[in-house]
Amino acid sequence: MTRIFSGVKPTGHLTLGNYLGAVRQWVAADQKPDEALFCVVDLHALTVEHDPARVRRLSRQAATLLLAAGLDPERCTLFVQSHVDEHTRLSYLLECTASDGELRRMIQYREKAGRAQAAGDGVRLSLLTYPVLMAADILAYRSEEVPVGEDQRQHVELTRDLAVRFNQRYGPTFTVPKATHPAVAARVMDLQDPRSKMGKSHEVSAGVVYLLDEPAAVTKKVMRAVTDTGSGVVYDREARPGVANLLDILAACTGGDPVELAAGYTGYGQLKRDVAEAVVELLRPVRERHAELAADPAAVDGVLRAGAERARGIARPVVDGAYEAIGLLAP
Ligand code: AQP
């Protein structure tokens, strides 16, 4: 049995990128006999400017959407990061294992720190250290696999480095995890700016498809997607990123291969119509189920409470073991 861990941060409404890059893999893992833990990583949402009430609202909405997407709380453990203290307890030990230099090299830190500075906001120290907290999220459960989108590859690499370093210095404590990515759509791009990732915290949302978008909104966004100059439909991520993104999305929705799908089109119009229809149909059951579940928030909170208790039971002995290994006196 493989232990799987992954998370989503409540920095915005969940997007098609989250769904195709991560959540769908989670639902697939949940069908297998593997032991899976999925987390709304709310502490990570505090690393940038945030509105407290919105983070709280989005945390419950993210959990509700994960259930709507098909996670079964009888089979997996679904919980909120801040409900399990072991994450922050372990994070400090890993900060004592990581170096300042390796954190400053993280691409997401450089991008987001740049954005915060450009907006005149200060850069929060937690933005620098957040990959260490993410490492703690993963290592506290001795997770073996971390299903994530392509953008998280560097952070999972850091997690592996920290696990190996800690184990070498203080004795075997952590399992060294590996990232897994979907075969297609591991990095869904913004429909208006196909050289940037579709991100849920983007301020301009015309190129971002949200899981809770109405079908008409999805269709409008896809039909207005930026395509490339050049004739014919070919799959070329470098030279034709807009079309390649649409083909990736279509392939992910229909189970096809983007290169083979390209051969079936002569113009962008039909491709966009097919992508819009495929996305609308993919998201329809998630949206409908979400509406049912959202009507009973207390039930969702109950799932999260039970999940946190199970998660605590797994993480506590691992983190206690790390405290002892690093040289702290037991209370
Ligand atoms: N565009 C994407 N394509 C494929 N996978 C994606 N993921 C996110 N965007 C895409 C994957 O979804 C999981 C949860 O993501 P997250 O909550 O950690 O980050 P986010 O959605 O990227 O959120 P933000 O706030 O918009 O963050 P930044 O600004 O960092 O991009 C992860 O497995 C992620 O890979």
From TrEMBL:
Pfam families: tRNA-synt_1b. This is Tryptophan--tRNA ligase. GO terms for cellular component: cytosol. It comes from the Bacteria. GO terms for molecular function: ATP binding; tryptophan-tRNA ligase activity. It is found in: Cytoplasm. InterPro entries: aa-tRNA-synth_I_CS, aa-tRNA-synth_Ic, Rossmann-like_a/b/a_fold, Trp-tRNA-ligase, Trp-tRNA-ligase_bac-type, Trp-tRNA_synthetase. A motif ('KMSKS' region) lies at residues 197-201. Homodimer. Keywords: Aminoacyl-tRNA synthetase, ATP-binding, Cytoplasm, Ligase, Nucleotide-binding, Protein biosynthesis. Catalyzes the attachment of tryptophan to tRNA(Trp). L-tryptophan binds at residue 137. It catalyses: tRNA(Trp) + L-tryptophan + ATP = L-tryptophyl-tRNA(Trp) + AMP + diphosphate + H(+).
